[in-house]
Write a structure and sequence with these properties.
Strand content: 15-25%
Number of helices: 6
Radius of gyration: 28 Å
């Protein structure tokens, strides 16, 4: 059980709601394979009397369907309905809902709620017909966490081990030019000279 789920409902962080496509994260094939490799060990039994760990094989099927059937590697878009995920994973929508919670708890994926603004007809207090805008929730937009930490900018296979280190800094060997001397006849330079003398810097 995650810390947030153990809190009272009014203290839990709310799910982010986003208009449009959500938070798409492009991922190449190797990044998807890393996500799957990260998730599989969570199926190992952790307690006596339990057949599986935090994730069941069916939950892995849900993850596999999301990654390989619905996620667009180039655009990063991934917002199928629970019914479509269930059909692809061979389970019920309720199992998909449970799988998503478990996958989020293990840090494999997360999602935001996609919302849209629609115009609908209505009557006012006097019975006159009119229209109003209403915000509705359409689906979830899923994004996956690359265990390598590269996120949406995962390195392609040709650059899996780039030269240099992540903490390497580059320093310019060209010396910085010395500042031009202040001109006392220039009003701005004269003010800077007086200011420097006040601070005893000059």
């Amino acid at each position: 059980m995650s810390i947030s789920s153990s809190l009272p409902k009014h203290l839990r962080s709310r799910r982010e709601k986003v208009f449009g496509d959500g938070r798409p994260r492009p991922m190449e094939r190797n990044a998807k394979a890393r996500v799957m490799a990260y998730a599989r060990p969570f199926t190992r039994r952790t307690e006596k009397g339990k057949h599986y760990g935090q994730l069941t094989p069916k939950y892995i099927d849900v993850l596999e369907a999301l990654l390989w059937k619905f996620h667009n590697a180039l655009s990063g878009l991934c917002f199928p309905s629970l019914a479509k995920i269930a059909k692809e994973a061979g389970c019920s929508p309720s199992t998909v809902a449970e799988a998503l919670k478990a996958l989020e708890a293990t840090g494999v994926l997360s999602w935001v709620n996609r919302i849209a603004r629609i115009r609908e007809r209505c009557e006012d207090l006097f019975g006159n017909l009119g229209t109003r805008w209403r915000i509705i929730r359409t689906s979830n937009a899923y994004h996956f966490h690359d265990p390598k930490g590269a996120g949406s900018q995962a390195l392609p296979s040709e650059s899996e081990f780039p030269s240099g280190t992540s903490i390497q800094e580059s320093f310019s060997l060209v010396p910085a030019p010395s500042p031009a001397p202040l001109d006392p006849d220039n009003p701005l330079d004269a003010a800077l000279i007086r200011f420097g003398k006040t601070l005893k810097a000059l």
